[in-house]
């Protein structure tokens, strides 16, 4: 079915038949509650927002980064500020009904701190490697400054020596 299409469904009760029109789900957006949620908060709630009043029964799904979609009973998901959640960079939600399904844009995790790693040793290795890069950069900059200093001193000495030779040759000339 097309996403903008509506579906008419007959709902039968004891005495009458009622036709219910179901519209496509809206484009969902992930919102955080409370609005003051920050990296210092203990926990926060993510809400898959969108006006589903005319969409009939709606199913909700959540995804962490590029992981698998997980079905949810509600349009909300609680996130706790722990090491596992700090490794998740983004969250996304999906709404689905009989007519359509739509995904939100990726929402940046307010608790994100740690890049995903295969194990703790990899995190330590990355840190150790980073320190070596910083140290090597400092050493290379120091060597470049030292080389520049040596070149400047060399040219100054050359200029002084050339200036002295000219003066000596002028003093030695008896015609002057």
UniProtKB/TrEMBL annotation:
Residues 28-108 form the Ig-like domain. Keywords: Membrane, Transmembrane, Transmembrane helix. The chain crosses the membrane at residues 131-157. InterPro entries: Ig-like_dom, Ig-like_dom_sf, Ig-like_fold. It comes from the Eukaryota. This is Ig-like domain-containing protein. The lineage of its organism: Eukaryota, Metazoa, Chordata, Craniata, Vertebrata. The gene is LOC120443432.
């Amino acid at each position: 079915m097309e996403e903008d299409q509506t579906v008419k469904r007959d709902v039968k009760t004891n005495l009458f038949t009622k036709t219910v029109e179901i519209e496509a789900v809206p484009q969902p957006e992930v919102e955080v509650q409370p609005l003051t949620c920050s990296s210092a908060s203990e926990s926060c709630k993510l809400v898959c927002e969108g006006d589903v009043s005319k969409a009939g029964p709606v199913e909700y799904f959540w995804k962490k980064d590029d992981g698998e979609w997980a079905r949810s009973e509600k349009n909300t998901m609680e996130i706790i500020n722990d090491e596992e959640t700090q490794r998740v960079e983004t969250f996304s939600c999906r709404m689905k009904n009989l007519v359509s399904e739509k995904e939100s844009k990726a929402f940046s995790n307010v608790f994100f701190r740690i890049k995903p790693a295969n194990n703790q040793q990899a995190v330590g290795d990355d840190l150790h490697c980073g320190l070596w890069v910083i140290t090597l950069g400092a050493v290379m900059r120091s060597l470049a400054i030292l080389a520049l200093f040596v070149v400047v001193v060399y040219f100054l000495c050359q200029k002084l020596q050339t200036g002295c030779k000219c003066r000596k040759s002028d003093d030695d000339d008896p015609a002057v």
